[in-house]
Amino acid sequence: MNKLIIEGMTCAHCQASVKNALEGVPGVTSAAVDLSAGSARVEGDADVQALIRAVEEEGYSARPAT
Ligand SMILES: [Cu+2]
């Protein structure tokens, strides 16, 4: 499980875009995006850098939550 901090989401559409982007990364089994918290929980064993890139390609920023 990876937890990410997501920046730039403003509405449910953003939330859905980030969720879809994360779920498209190889190794991801599911992703849950929390719009109000600005975070995402990603299940599976995907590469963290690949998750961050996928989010960035949608126009948002992401970094690992510590
Ligand atoms: Cu939006």
Describe the structure.
This protein has 66 residues and is of the alpha+beta class. The chain has one domain (2-64): Alpha-Beta Plaits, CATH 3.30.70.100. 33% of the residues lie in helices and 35% in strands. It is built from two helices and four strands. A four-stranded antiparallel sheet has the order 2-3-1-4, with helices on one face. The radius of gyration is 10 Å and the shape is globular. It starts with a strand and ends with a strand. The mean pLDDT is 97. Residues 10-11, 13-14 line the site of copper (II) ion (CU). Copper (II) ion (CU) binds at residues 10-11, 13-14.
What is the approximate shape?
A: globular
Strand order of the largest sheet: 2-3-1-4
Backbone structural class: alpha+beta
Largest sheet: 4 strands, antiparallel
Through-space gap between termini:
12 Å
What share of residues are in beta strands? Answer: 25-35%
Name of the top-level CATH class: Alpha Beta
How large is the count of helical segments? Answer: 2
